[in-house]
Amino acid sequence: MEEKVLEMLEPDVLNKSFNNHGREVPFKNYLIKEVFPYMDLTNETIKLKSGFVVSLKDFFEQSILYTCQNKYEGDFVSFAKDNIISFEEGKKRVEKKRFSNVTGNLSPTAKIYPFFEYLDGPQYQVIVDKGKVFFSYKDENFDVVMKSVNDQKDFLKRIKRLDLPFFIKIYTNNPVFKDYVGTFKSDEEFFEDLMTGVEIVSDFDKEIEKKIGEITGLIEEVENSQISTASTKTGVFSIEDLPNFDVDTCIKTIISKCTSYYSEFSSDVDESLSSNSVLEKADYITREYLQTKVDKLFYDYVSEIANSVNNDLDLDINEEFISSNLDKIMSELRKQLKRLFVYPYRDKEADSSDVYINVIAASLENQITFYEQLVNSTIENKLALFGYVLRGQEEAPIQTR
Predict the structure, then answer these.
(1) Which long-range contacts (CB under 8 A, 24 or more apart) does 117-121 make?
(2) Statement: residue 204 has pLDDT above 80
(3) Are 242 and 398 in contact (CB under 8 A)?
């Protein structure tokens, strides 16, 4: 009967965290352990002392999830005594321990991947054996295999939230598990949500790669064609002729990953972004700790080039005018990015912010590297127009005319 009641409730509601005497637990687990044993689940309605009669579904999703949690801190017995007609505190059904047939009949080559709600349990197990995948939930009372599709979906979302790096490791290294997860692709909304932060190459990342590809093409086009002499008729090397760093794309990259992060535990992502001032902070951090650093290195470098050209001095192309300082820039930027990821629960071990920060850093480093290449490629072609002979950096430094 419990399974039928759980199927009646919305999956998003069952996945919500519930404050049970100061301890955050999944609402589904709270119902199984703290509510179901006291109730006759065959009744379709609940009579409240307030005079209202509510459906079993509304009672769980509204009265318990909100009133019992916020006013009674998860003390269901006290809540029920105050609100339910004819509630008998001592009438608790004795739950028999339930065991699955899977965990006791595994082959020697079976692989078991455990995820823990807390250090002392409960434990969620991903079991891969003989080309099949099983999900089981274990605590002091239960050892149950998830069989329904909804339970399996809830299980996948739960373990991803508990330990995203471990989830990614299994997904990447175990092809059986990866193929199994792929069977949910028909549910596009669920699969896209599940894969957020797991498959590094998201749709937004593909757009970034496309943009980088366009930049690469531009580099090749500049290298293989003659630059118009319209802007160089005066014979003056101008900084204004060189490309600017694309800070807007960097900001979009950061906001995209922040959105994915908050979608893991928030049903209203826009509200989470707004309440934590993510958009404003992302803009400030990117411009203050990335753009200003890159722009300074750019202007220092290009000013030196311009001075050498305009005064007939020897000069060298520095292929790492930004890269040589990249570690220092990214180290400071990483510290600042942590301000954008605010985990709302006490269990910090489930916080996946470091994974998203790593993805952001990798993407930004790629953009910086391509920008560095684009600047140097443009400079080299302009130098050729001024009569400088580029003989290749391996053979000799650039010579003046």
Answers:
(1) 117/25, 117/26, 117/29, 117/162, 118/347
(2) no
(3) no
Report the distance separating Cα 319 and Cα 304, nearest Å: 14
- 118 by DSSP, 3-state: which? coil
**pLDDT of the residue at 118:** 60
pLDDT in tens, 24-42: 888 888 888 888 888 877 7
Q: What would the pLDDT profile of 375-396 be if each residue is shown by its tens digit?
A: 988 888 877 776 665 544 444 4
Alpha-carbon Rg for the chain in angstroms: 30
Q: Which residues contact 324 (CB under 8 A, 6 or more apart)?
A: none
Q: Which long-range contacts (CB under 8 A, 24 or more apart) does 295-303 make?
A: 295/245, 297/321, 297/322, 297/325, 298/242, 298/245, 298/322, 298/375, 299/239, 302/239, 302/242, 302/375, 302/379, 303/239
Comparison of pLDDT for 13 and 384, the residue scoring more: 13
For Cα atoms 200, 197, 294, give the angle at the middle one, nearest 5 degrees: 65
Could you tell me if 161 and 343 are in contact, meaning their C-beta atoms sit under 8 angstroms apart?
no
Neighbours of 160 (CB within 10 A): 23
Pairing of strands 98-99, 142-145: parallel
Instruction: Answer whether the bond into residue 114 is a cis peptide, omega within 30°.
Output: no
Q: Which residue has tokens 């200003």? A: 292
Query: Three-class SS of residue 238?
Result: coil
**91-95, 97-101, 171-175, 335-339: least confident range:** 97-101
The alpha helices in 15-55, defined as continuous H runs, are 27-30
Look at the block and give the residue holding tokens 């900001």: 251
pTM over 0.70: no
The secondary structure of 166-234 as a DSSP string is HHHHHHHH-HHHHHHHHTTTTSHHHHHHHHTTTSSS-HHHHHHHHHHHHHHHHHHHHHTSPPPGGGGTT
CA distances from 180 to 116, 220, 332 (A): 21, 42, 40
What pLDDT, on a 0 to 100 scale, did the predictor assign at position 328?
93
Confidence of residue 326 (pLDDT cuts 50, 70, 90): very high
- DSSP one-letter code for 393: T
Longest dimension (CA), the chain: 99
pLDDT-derived band at 102, boundaries 50, 70, 90:
low
* Per-residue pLDDT, 97: 43
